[in-house]
Every structure is written in structure tokens, then in C-alpha cells.
């Protein structure tokens, strides 16, 4: 494996390379179940196998800085080289206290803890950490119990009228960009895709009938997503502009002439966010791609779809994650109970 990109770290300023090539990270992940090459950042190699590369790297880098600030590490090693498998137990306990003091939202604190817990479990499974030491670390970073906040869960969901208005505005716009954005919005709010998943789509991921989409989600897990009629129509309308050449499904548009820039170029995740913000500019709060995914889940659950099926469609590993998107309140639960027949006489 070529690991030259990990050499030359600035250990004085504790900085890391701004970007690690995906090919190198994937190679490290492939080798994560055996002793990890010493030149590769062990935390990333193991954690990426369990989730998003970008998210894992950013969280672990921030947490490594927190570890150093606690004074529990003997030497100020570079952030990018922090070896989580050899930290003393006191470092994990200090890290947990610092997480509580640094991040205000319980869900964010738990996400930070989960990032390190994933690394600890992977180190244990790969034989890089004893079972006893891993147990101590996992206990120190035990997640907080978070109660269900129904008002908070209702936030981030778009109303039907807002979505309808956005599609109407794009339909009135005859530009190729509007067609592309309509297909993008349809995939987010009508198929529940993450913005990274939408940007990574290729034309080949669509079946011949344009009825099913093959999506590669977190952890390189592949799932099949059925497409609603409206989503299919939006994609077909976009393909009339894009044409049927192989390559990325969603492409950038030329800034000088009304046409597709290059079918071989891929729409970036930042461009996805910008398109969503632009198409929902009339809303009170900034609309983000994940709000559309949240709306998709809420709409399916409101329509009576079962939690397990919705979880599989959106690529959640656990239905409990999907339940966090459920915006239904006490009235929905009361209506469900009313359907029961208790034979009391």
C-alpha cells in the first residue's frame, strides 16, 4: 500500500493533511481486520469501515484535540496519528467529561462518543486492544439516555405545500438546471437519499424501467430503492436533457450556456446543498438536504408504512434510528389504540 501521503505531518502545530485520498483510505479499510499498517492512521482505517469517511475523520480529529487538552497523553503526538488503542483509561474518562463540557446537544455528545466507541470495538476485534481495556474504554464513554422530544422531532420536516410550491416553480422554469434540480429534489424528498448518495449516483444505478435505484450508502452498504411515479417522471425529464451517456446521473451545468457541462463530471455534495437552499429559498429557515430525507421518512410513516420497511428503504442499520424521524405525536398513538377491541362486558 502507498502510504507516502501520511508522511511529513507537522507535529509542532498538530495539523493533518486536508484530504486523504479515498483510494488510500479504502485500502486501509480493506486491511482493517488484520494488523493495520503502522504508517496508516489506525483510527480512520477502522472507523471508516463503519461509516462515512469524511464524518469519521472530522470527528476523530476534533476528539483527538480534546484528548490532548486533558493532559492525559504523555507526548503531544500529531492529531492525525492518535492511537486510540493505547490511551490510558484515565484519558477516556477525561474525554467523556470534556465531551460533556464542549458540546451542548445530547445527540451531538453521543455521536462523538459513538465515533470513539466504534474505533475501540474495531481495535478490540482486530486484536489491537485487549478485551478488558476495551471494556473500560467503552464504559467510560457510555451514551446518555435521551428522552423523546416530540416538538424537536417535528422540526426539520417540510410541509406538503412547501414541497409542492418548489416543484411548481421548477416546472415553470424551462432551463436545464431546473430539470436537474427537480430530479435531485425528487430523489431527496421522494426516495429519501442522503446528499452523498445522490451525488454518487451513476446512470447505471437505474434499472431499465426507471423504477428502481441501486444506492450505495454508509459503510459501502448497497440497497435497492423503489421509486415513486413522481420521482420516475422527474428523472426521465432530466435524462431528456442529460441524454443516456454512461456516467454520473447528476452533473454540473454550464455557467455560460444552458446545457450540461460534461456528462463525465459529478455534482458535488456542496452543489447538492446549494441547489436545495436555492429551491427552498422562500422558507423561513434554511432548508438542508437532510430535511428532505427527514420529510420523506415522516411522510411514509404518516401514510402508515411500517417502521422496518422505511428503515430498509432509507438505509438505516437500526429501526430505532428511523424512529427518531417520526413526527407523529400523541394523537397518532391514540388513534392506533382506538383500533383495538378489548372484549370487556
UniProtKB/TrEMBL annotation:
<dbReference type="Pfam" id="PF00589">
    <property type="entry name" value="Phage_integrase"/>
</dbReference>
<dbReference type="GO" id="GO:0015074">
    <property type="term" value="P:DNA integration"/>
</dbReference>
<dbReference type="GO" id="GO:0003677">
    <property type="term" value="F:DNA binding"/>
</dbReference>
<protein>
    <submittedName>
        <fullName>Site-specific integrase</fullName>
    </submittedName>
</protein>
<dbReference type="InterPro" id="IPR050090">
    <property type="entry name" value="Tyrosine_recombinase_XerCD"/>
</dbReference>
<comment type="similarity">
    <text>Belongs to the 'phage' integrase family.</text>
</comment>
<dbReference type="InterPro" id="IPR002104">
    <property type="entry name" value="Integrase_catalytic"/>
</dbReference>
<keyword id="KW-0238">DNA-binding</keyword>
<dbReference type="GO" id="GO:0006310">
    <property type="term" value="P:DNA recombination"/>
</dbReference>
<feature type="domain" description="Tyr recombinase">
    <location>
        <begin position="153"/>
        <end position="338"/>
    </location>
</feature>
<dbReference type="InterPro" id="IPR013762">
    <property type="entry name" value="Integrase-like_cat_sf"/>
</dbReference>
<keyword id="KW-0233">DNA recombination</keyword>
<dbReference type="InterPro" id="IPR011010">
    <property type="entry name" value="DNA_brk_join_enz"/>
</dbReference>
Amino acid at each position: 500500500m502507498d502510504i507516502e501521503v501520511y508522511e511529513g505531518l507537522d507535529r509542532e502545530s498538530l495539523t493533518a493533511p486536508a484530504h486523504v485520498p479515498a483510494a488510500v483510505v479504502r485500502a486501509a479499510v480493506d486491511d482493517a481486520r488484520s494488523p493495520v499498517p503502522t504508517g496508516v492512521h489506525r483510527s480512520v482505517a477502522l472507523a471508516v469501515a463503519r461509516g462515512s469517511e469524511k464524518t469519521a475523520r472530522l470527528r476523530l480529529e476534533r476528539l483527538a484535540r480534546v484528548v490532548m487538552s486533558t493532559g492525559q497523553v504523555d507526548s503531544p503526538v500529531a492529531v492525525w496519528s492518535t492511537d486510540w488503542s493505547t490511551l490510558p483509561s484515565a484519558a477516556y474518562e477525561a474525554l467523556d467529561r470534556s465531551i460533556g463540557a464542549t458540546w451542548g446537544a445530547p445527540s451531538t455528545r453521543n455521536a462523538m462518543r459513538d465515533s470513539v466507541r466504534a474505533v475501540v470495538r474495531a481495535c478490540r476485534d482486530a486484536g489491537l486492544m485487549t478485551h478488558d481495556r476495551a471494556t473500560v474504554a467503552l464504559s467510560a464513554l457510555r451514551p446518555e439516555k435521551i428522552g423523546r422530544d416530540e416538538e424537536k422531532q417535528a422540526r426539520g420536516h417540510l410541509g406538503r405545500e412547501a414541497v409542492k410550491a418548489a416543484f411548481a416553480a421548477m416546472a415553470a422554469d424551462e432551463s436545464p438546471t431546473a430539470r436537474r434540480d427537480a430530479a435531485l429534489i425528487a430523489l431527496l424528498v421522494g426516495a429519501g437519499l442522503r446528499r452523498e448518495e445522490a451525488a454518487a449516483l451513476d446512470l447505471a444505478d437505474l434499472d431499465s424501467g426507471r423504477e428502481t435505484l441501486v444506492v450505495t450508502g454508509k459503510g459501502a452498504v448497497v440497497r435497492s430503492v423503489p421509486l415513486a411515479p413522481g420521482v420516475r417522471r422527474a428523472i426521465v425529464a432530466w435524462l431528456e436533457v442529460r441524454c443516456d451517456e454512461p456516467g454520473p446521473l447528476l452533473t454540473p451545468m454550464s455557467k455560460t450556456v444552458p446545457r450540461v457541462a460534461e456528462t463525465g463530471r459529478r455534482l458535488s455534495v456542496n452543489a447538492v446543498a446549494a441547489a436545495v437552499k436555492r429551491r427552498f429559498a422562500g422558507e423561513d429557515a434554511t432548508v438542508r438536504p437532510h430535511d428532505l430525507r427527514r420529510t420523506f421518512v415522516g411522510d411514509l410513516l404518516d401514510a402508515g408504512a411500517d417502521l422496518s420497511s422505511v428503515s430498509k428503504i432509507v438505509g438505516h442499520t437500526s429501526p430505532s434510528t428511523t424512529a427518531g424521524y417520526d413526527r407523529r405525536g400523541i394523537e397518532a398513538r391514540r388513534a392506533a389504540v382506538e383500533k383495538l377491541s378489548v372484549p370487556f362486558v
